[in-house]
Design brief:
- With about 140 residues, the chain is mainly beta.
- The protein is about 10% helix and about 60% strand.
- The protein has one helix at about 1-15, and strands at about 25-50, 55-80, 90, 90-95, 100, 105-110, 115-125, 135-140.
- Strands 1, 2, 3, 4, 5, 6, 7 and 8 form an eight-stranded antiparallel beta sheet that branches.
- The longest helix is centred in the first third of the chain and has 15 residues, at about 1-15.
- The chain is elongated, with a radius of gyration of 20 Å.
- The N and C termini lie far apart (about 60 Å).
Length: about 140
């Protein structure tokens, strides 16, 4: 009788234990154009490659403190994806945020679902601030 009770308690404990996260990564390619004087308006398009399938993306967002016109092509990785729809959302700076290194844009952004985009690319044009925080990503 005691053995049956121990087995039952062990089975119940294992059933209630959290399962391992099945989060995956995907590859992202983004083309973003921003223009502005004080308030910047930006947008663009991109692609998420997840488990070999391509998902077209739409990029939007508005920035404050912008001056000039610039375009940037970014490539990188999307972390913590469980489905392609997880990439949808508004992104803010995660960790160090966006930086410029000799015209290169490097950013680590996170949305409300915990998806982290780590992207890098080269900026073309002139813009004092090409901040990516506040950008929104949607599936087309």
């Amino acid at each position: 009788m005691t053995l049956i009770a121990v087995v039952f308690i062990a089975a119940a404990a294992l059933a209630g234990a959290p399962t391992e996260s099945r989060a995956q990564t995907g590859t992202v390619r983004l083309h973003i154009v921003k223009a502005g004087f004080i308030v910047g308006i930006g947008g663009g398009s991109g692609t998420l490659i997840y488990h070999g399938a391509r998902y077209p993306l739409t990029i939007g967002g508005i920035g404050v403190g912008s001056l000039g016109v610039a375009a940037v092509d970014l490539v990188g990785t999307a972390y913590n994806l469980r489905t392609p729809a997880d990439i949808v959302g508004s992104y803010g700076a995660a960790g160090a945020g966006a930086t410029f290194v000799g015209g290169a844009q490097v950013a680590r952004l996170q949305n409300e679902k915990g998806v982290i985009l780590e992207v890098h690319g080269v900026q073309v044009g002139f813009q004092v601030s090409l901040g990516l925080a506040g950008m929104t990503v949607a599936l087309r």
